[in-house]
Amino acid sequence: MEIQEENILNPRQARMEKLKKLIAQKINPFPSQASRTHRCLEIIVDFDELAKKQIKVVLAGRIRSLRSHGGSCFIHFEDETGKLQAYFKKDILKENYETLKELIDIGDFIQIKGSLFLTKKEEKTILADEFKLLSKSLLPLPEKWNGLKDVEIRYRKRYLDLISNPTVKDIFIKRSIVINAIRQFLHQEGFMEVETPILQPIPGGASAKPFITHHNALNIDLYLRVAPELYLKRLIVGGFEKVYELGRSFRNEGIDHRHNPEYTSLEFYWAYADYQILMGFTEKLFTEIINKIQDSFEIKYKDKILNFKPPWPRKTFKKALFDLANIDITNLSKEKLIKEMKKLKLQANKKDELVALYEILYKEIILPSIEQPTIIMDYPIEMEPLAKKCEDDPRFAQRFQLVVCGIELLKAYSELNDPLDQKKRFEEQQKLISKGDEEAQRIDKDFIETLEYGMPPCAGEGIGIDRLVSILTNSHSLKEVILFPTLKPKK
Known about the structure:
By secondary structure, the protein is an alpha+beta fold. It has two domains: 2-141, CATH 2.40.50.140; 162-313 and 372-480, 2-Layer Sandwich (BirA Bifunctional Protein, domain 2), CATH 3.30.930. 35% of the residues lie in helices and 26% in strands. The chain has 16 helices and 19 strands. Strand 3 (72-79) and strand 4 form a beta hairpin. The longest helix has 23 residues, at 166-188. The two termini are 44 Å apart. 32% of the residues are buried.
């Protein structure tokens, strides 16, 4: 048995020499035209019928293995749907056989025409009558037996990752299924998909540090949006009752296994609904998504089995904190809250704003305690400048989040539609900016004016698609579910 070998010291140079020989033989190594009658999966499924009728088929794909035995050669090639074996014989191909044997490499794209048969080992195979080189590869693929393991290379050269690791391709197929399921569900529920500005004069709709850029023609600074929220609510004011946007947002923040500077989010807004309605609606949405990718509500994530079967447990922020840390924030002054936090060895001092203290308690006490899908609701009003106050206790906001394994998958609330209250909340945020908080929200006077024309009662929700897919595919880093994650350039 002969295994195809290359110049180990300089495989590219060896392939360049083959490229020159192909051109000398007047063989176009990069033709523009290709044809095929079937894809690999279609052949696999309909093999018996096609083989019995001796139907000539034309297939195309990338060569993944190549081995020759004197006057015959076996190739495994694959397209997007699967992999097949091809058998080439010298007495059939004549002089073209030597071209195949000497000038074709693993990684090349090839078109094959022939008939189907089963080998002695009962492997489905195409017997080639003729072949055509579709694209010559000048660099070798990663060693196929071990796949591509280097994480740095996998993320920087995702195309090699997809070629070498089938499970990676499965993740992104599942991601596409999730996104399509969301769109189908929302359309069935009467929502309209819209597009709002990515370049914005004021970054609003979320507490985050924005990216800034400059528009030369207008000579103004613009921001990459941190969220589409305020523009989507403008559409509710304009008369649309159910709108959503699924797209990219950007936050100039650190990078870790749960954060990427650009990310995909879903935001939808529903007139005449409140956050209580959205809780049940969200459970229904997740049911649709999970049913599209598997038959069970049980999702394996890391070493845990998560059960997404609704209804999910619901707990207020206040109750969760009291149960976990014996802290009742209902009537607790800032000074007493700091003392309680220091007992728990949490970083807290008098200079911290109340919202910062609540965030610490949330991230250090509440989030890490939650494993199974759980709704945390009714957050302190200081933590949410865009949500309505709870009518029974205005110290808390009508907001909820779905938390799984300490990860926030979504945030939703009854939207604040009182322009006077909204202005006060923005002014409080502006004070935080003046104290150095780069993530606080700016005053958006145009949005306040929009609310003054009247916005109906409305509920809105934002879902982090990357985080959701990471949970559903048992991926422990967002880099595994983003095709091209943001990376520091190599020097």
